[in-house]
Amino acid sequence: MNTRALILFGHGARDARWAAPFKRLQQIVQQQLPDVTVTLAFLELMPPQLPELVEQLEEGGHTEATIVPVFFGQGGHVLRDLPLIIEKLRQDHAEMTIKVAGAVGEDADVLNAVATYCVASLARQ
């Protein structure tokens, strides 16, 4: 049984189509990490929200969760809202180890991949 989980955390939107690239990302990551449960959670507007998902994971026997904010930058949600949510999660799920990565858009490899895409877009015109 997988006891570790990787949670891809996004903002959420009213339009369900917004989540399509997040679901594709989840599938790609899950293929690379077959021994880890890879899930999606959202801040608002879409289920599941992070507290609900962490509770489900704990009930399912997971002992460790790493949350990856799939945000391009460290805006108010990542700097203000997420730390409050994480603090509450750690209080409510003291038996779980809960880690938080930086926002994906702050990573040099991610920025380089986006830059490569942007440069290549010139050739597609």
TrEMBL record:
Keywords: Lyase, Metal-binding. It comes from the Bacteria. One of its GO terms (molecular function) is lyase activity. SUPFAM superfamilies: Chelatase. This is Cobalamin biosynthesis protein CbiX. It comes from Noviherbaspirillum cavernae.
